[in-house]
Amino acid sequence: MIRRYEASDRERVAAFLMTQQAFAALNAQTLEVFRDENLADFEETGTVSLVVEDDGAIVAMADLLRRHPIDGSLWLGLLLVDEQLHGTGLAQKVYDQLERDHMRPFQTTFRLGVLPKNVRARRFWERQGYVYEQDSVTGDGVHVHVLKKDIE
Q1: 4 pairs with which residues across the strands?
Q2: Which of 22, 41, 136, 152 falls between 20 and 30 A from 30, CA-CA?
Q3: CA atoms of 120 and 79, how far apart (whole Å)
Q4: Greater confidence, 69 or 75?
Q5: Contact predicate 150/107, CB 8 Å
Q6: pLDDT, the chain, mean
Q7: Could you please report the per-residue DSSP string of the chain?
Q8: CA distance 20 to 2
Q9: 116, 106, 32, 1: which is closest to 64 by C-alpha?
Q10: What is the band of 35 on the pLDDT scale with cuts at 50, 70, 90?
Q11: What percent of the chain has a predicted confidence (pLDDT) above 90?
């Protein structure tokens, strides 16, 4: 289900991103800017970019920074589940596998940023054991709530 992004996935990932209107709107971006920014992030070196497929269709994507250069923790830079599949349990299933296979083997502290107006996402992350740590501003000037999870 979850596998590493490859250059050959670019067109399919671009098409998937162009269907995620709600998340683009939360980011105050046009679909084109949202697509281009996320494609660029996926093609950066230094992160682990993942594609989630079901029956050959992309249904989610994730991007991880395994060791942040300042705090040393693993940062989940993106978990994007197809908005048509919200409420189906897919996000939970994907996150469980993501944490088990791509996060826990590398770190014991996880962080992520949630947009302040994305209440649904904040509730989801809190159900996963994340707690509010601080407010922050991303390198792109976006205000986020930083959530943290420590595991043993």
Answers
A1: 50
A2: 136
A3: 13
A4: 75
A5: no
A6: 93
A7: -EEE--GGGHHHHHHHHTT-HHHHHHTT--HHHHHHHHHHHHTSTTSEEEEEEETTEEEEEEEEESS-TTT--EEEEEEEE-GGGTTTTHHHHHHHHHIIIIITTT-SEEEEEE-TT-HHHHHHHHHTT-EEEEEEE-TTS-EEEEEEEE--
A8: 19
A9: 106
A10: very high
A11: 84
Q: Which residues are CB-neighbours of 48 under 8 A, at least 6 positions away?
A: 4, 63, 64, 65, 66, 102
**Joined tokens for residue 74:** 């693993």
Q: How far apart are CA 122 and CA 12, in angstroms?
A: 28
CA angle, residues 139, 51, 93, in degrees to nearest 5: 100
How far from 44 is each of 2, 13, 32, 37, 63, CA to CA, in Å? 19, 15, 18, 11, 10
CA dihedral (67, 70, 73, 74) in degrees, to 10, reads -50
- What tokens appear for 136 in the block? 């922050």
Higher pLDDT, residue 90 or 152: 90
Tokens coding 146: 């930083």
